[in-house]
Amino acid sequence: MLSITARNLACAMRSGLIGTSSRVAAVRCLHGTEESAEEFDKRYEKYFSREGIDGWEIRKGMNDLLGMDLVPSPKVIEAGLRATRRVNDIALAIRWLEGCKDKCGDQKATLYPYLLEKITPTLQELGIPTIEELGYDKPELALKSVYDA
Amino acid sequence: MSALRLIPRNLSQLTTPTRMAMMGRRFASGGDGVRLLIGDREVVGYGINGRPLYFDSPDCPFPAIRYREVTPELCAVREKELGDWKKLSLDDKKLLYRHSFCQTYAEFQHFSPEWKICLGVALWLVAIGMGISIAMKAKLYGELPETFDDEHQSAQLRRIIQLQMNPITGISSKWCYHENKWK
């Protein structure tokens, strides 16, 4: 008895609400659709591979990406590295690698070797050293006092 | 912390021509003193808020300016950087990195003993506060007024009950007026 009543009630509610909900959906669509992971990667790959991108824009894109709750995919990392090559800034490339490694968080043991394996051809092609080759996986210098700098 | 390093030291000891040159720079940059603040460092990005500040942080790993000022030796390495990066030695790469950035990720995320000074300062402040209140209790405040002794307090309680103060939830609600005793 209760289940029949509930079903009737649900049907009545649905028919009453159907107009509203479709209107709500239409309004929400104005804010853009949900972006899939592949589209997201593609968007950033395109952003970094644009002709005539400058250091300012690269930094902006990288700062944004490293501020998000994600690990950049190898394709995006490669695109970023190539962008730094085009603006001739190797420091930026090294920092970008460090940032991507840091984004692996507590999964560094599994994720980082995977990323490195994927991007190694690009690193070798461009002549960018890995963080381990530079010795930057461990602290290299102690910070000097502000007054001696 | 690192941003503090950009403040020029010994401003008062500068000679007048140097100061004049600095004034020139100040006005050359729209009067906000950006050049005065960052010297010859390149402004390379937006940073965190558009101000030319340098700091190392994983939230914003690419600050608005390079860490070091441009020098002739560095220019030579920058020239080499324009070519094939495979021809750069490891030291050159490190030099370029340290020119742009102060500390690596591993360095600025390394555990630092800074918590000691934080805890120390906090405990000092608590100790000073307690010292002040003890001193005030001992020296500044006089004796408590006579209304604090038992006799006056019970007289006050009696008066409260007689006037039926707070009869719903307060003291008088606990007093039975028929039997003249506490409920």
Automatic annotation (TrEMBL), chain A:
Compartment(s): Mitochondrion inner membrane
Main location: mitochondrion
GO molecular function: metal ion binding
A biological process from GO: mitochondrial electron transport, cytochrome c to oxygen
Keyword Cell division applies: no
Keyword Hydrolase: no
SUPFAM superfamilies: Cytochrome c oxidase subunit E
GO cellular component entries: mitochondrial inner membrane; respiratory chain complex IV
Keywords for this protein: Heme, Iron, Membrane, Metal-binding, Mitochondrion, Mitochondrion inner membrane, Transit peptide
Its membrane topology: Peripheral membrane protein
Biological pathway: Energy metabolism; oxidative phosphorylation
PANTHER family: CYTOCHROME C OXIDASE POLYPEPTIDE, CYTOCHROME C OXIDASE SUBUNIT 5A, MITOCHONDRIAL
Family membership: Belongs to the cytochrome c oxidase subunit 5A family.
Quaternary structure, from the entry: Component of the cytochrome c oxidase (complex IV, CIV), a multisubunit enzyme composed of a catalytic core of 3 subunits and several supernumerary subunits. The complex exists as a monomer or a dimer and forms supercomplexes (SCs) in the inner mitochondrial membrane with ubiquinol-cytochrome c oxidoreductase (cytochrome b-c1 complex, complex III, CIII).
Function in brief: Component of the cytochrome c oxidase, the last enzyme in the mitochondrial electron transport chain which drives oxidative phosphorylation. The respiratory chain contains 3 multisubunit complexes succinate dehydrogenase (complex II, CII), ubiquinol-cytochrome c oxidoreductase (cytochrome b-c1 complex, complex III, CIII) and cytochrome c oxidase (complex IV, CIV), that cooperate to transfer electrons derived from NADH and succinate to molecular oxygen, creating an electrochemical gradient over the inner membrane that drives transmembrane transport and the ATP synthase.
Protein name per its UniProtKB record: Cytochrome c oxidase subunit 5A, mitochondrial
Organism: Drosophila suzukii
TrEMBL record, chain B:
UniProt keyword Transmembrane, yes or no: yes
Compartment list: Mitochondrion inner membrane
Coiled-coil ranges from the UniProt annotation: none
Keywords (A to Z) from UniProt: Membrane, Mitochondrion, Mitochondrion inner membrane, Oxidoreductase, Transit peptide, Transmembrane, Transmembrane helix
Pathway it works in: Energy metabolism; oxidative phosphorylation
Cellular component aspect of the GO annotation: mitochondrial inner membrane; respiratory chain complex IV
Mode of membrane association: Single-pass membrane protein
InterPro entries in UniProt: Cyt_c_oxidase_su4, Cyt_c_oxidase_su4_fam, Cyt_c_oxidase_su4_sf
Entry keyword annotation includes Acyltransferase: no
GO molecular function: oxidoreductase activity
Gene3D superfamilies: Cytochrome c oxidase subunit IV
Source domain of life: Eukaryota
A GO biological process held by the record: mitochondrial electron transport, cytochrome c to oxygen
Subunit annotation: Component of the cytochrome c oxidase (complex IV, CIV), a multisubunit enzyme composed of 14 subunits.
Task performed by this protein: Component of the cytochrome c oxidase, the last enzyme in the mitochondrial electron transport chain which drives oxidative phosphorylation.
Entry-linked PANTHER family: CYTOCHROME C OXIDASE SUBUNIT 4, CYTOCHROME C OXIDASE SUBUNIT IV
Entry protein name: Cytochrome c oxidase subunit 4
Organism: Drosophila suzukii
